[in-house]
Structures are given as C-alpha cells and as structure tokens.
Design brief:
mainly alpha, 47% helix, HTH_62, Recombinase-like domain-containing protein
C-alpha cells in the first residue's frame, strides 16, 4: 500500500522494496543484529561472533561464517 507524500518530495516508504512480510527468522535475525551492532561492533568478524554467541544461526542451523553471512545478506537483499 502506497501512501501519498506528507512532507514533500522525495518520499520514502521504508517497506517499498519488501516483497513479503518478514518471517520469524528474519525478525529474530534483525533484532539480534541490532543488539550485536550496539554491543559488539559493526565489523564482519564482530557480527559473526555476536550471532554465534547468541546462538542465532543460519537458516539451516549451522554456525555463521563470514561467507555464509555475506551470502545470507545477499539472499535477503540487504
């Protein structure tokens, strides 16, 4: 659903590129990434370590690697 601009141009609907509602896995991953960014940092090694420490693994249940994280972010369009 697109809403008309309320404050002039350009208008951005934060969900405009979303092709579906996030899955429970995607919500959990996003929330955990926010926590990792806040407490561990933004470097890829920090992110992978933080996700694995919190036992938030890949969709197939494996621990994250830098390669699997990059691949998943690519798949999710991030």
């Amino acid at each position: 659903m697109t809403h008309p601009p309320t404050h002039g141009w350009p208008y951005l609907d934060v969900h405009q590129s979303r092709s579906h509602e996030p899955t429970p896995y995607e919500y959990k991953l996003a929330a955990t990434l926010e926590e990792v960014f806040t407490h561990e940092g933004h470097e890829l090694t920090d992110v992978v370590r933080g996700l694995n420490a919190r036992k938030v693994h890949t969709p197939d249940g494996a621990p994250w690697t830098e390669e699997s994280f990059r691949a998943e972010m690519n798949r999710l369009g991030a």
